[in-house]
């Protein structure tokens, strides 16, 4: 288990004021009730994330579609975005010299 999953397992969702919800499984082949729930959450495409207030209504909707979505708190979402930004950041170019080393 990596550190992010361990952190995710110990953070109580009920304490966070905002929830970041990402659709990670496809909509085709799901039940009509689940499709309607995802539509109400405004999740239409895979790998899209929406922010919703942490209310009992939203948590009940997420309970219905928990196998289709990933739920994150604000801190977890920001940490993941920062990790992705660092991964995609520009790096200095590698300078490789193919000339033979000078003899001493």
TrEMBL record:
One of its GO terms (biological process) is translation. Pfam families: Ribosomal_L30. It comes from Carya illinoinensis. Belongs to the universal ribosomal protein uL30 family. SUPFAM superfamilies: Ribosomal protein L30p/L7e. InterPro entries: Ribo_uL30_ferredoxin-like_sf, Ribosomal_uL30_bac-type, Ribosomal_uL30_ferredoxin-like. Keywords: Ribonucleoprotein, Ribosomal protein. This is Large ribosomal subunit protein uL30m. GO terms for cellular component: large ribosomal subunit; mitochondrion. GO terms for molecular function: structural constituent of ribosome. Residues 21-69 form the Large ribosomal subunit protein uL30-like ferredoxin-like fold domain.
């Amino acid at each position: 288990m990596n550190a992010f999953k361990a952190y995710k397992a110990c953070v109580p969702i009920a304490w966070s004021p905002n929830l970041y919800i990402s659709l990670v499984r496809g909509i085709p082949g799901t039940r009509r009730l689940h499709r309607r729930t995802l539509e109400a959450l405004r999740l239409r495409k895979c790998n899209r994330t929406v922010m919703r207030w942490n209310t009992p209504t939203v948590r009940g909707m997420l309970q219905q579609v928990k196998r289709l979505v990933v739920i994150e708190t604000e801190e977890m979402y920001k940490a993941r975005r920062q990790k992705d930004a660092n991964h995609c950041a520009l790096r200095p170019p590698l300078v490789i010299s193919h000339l033979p080393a000078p003899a001493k």
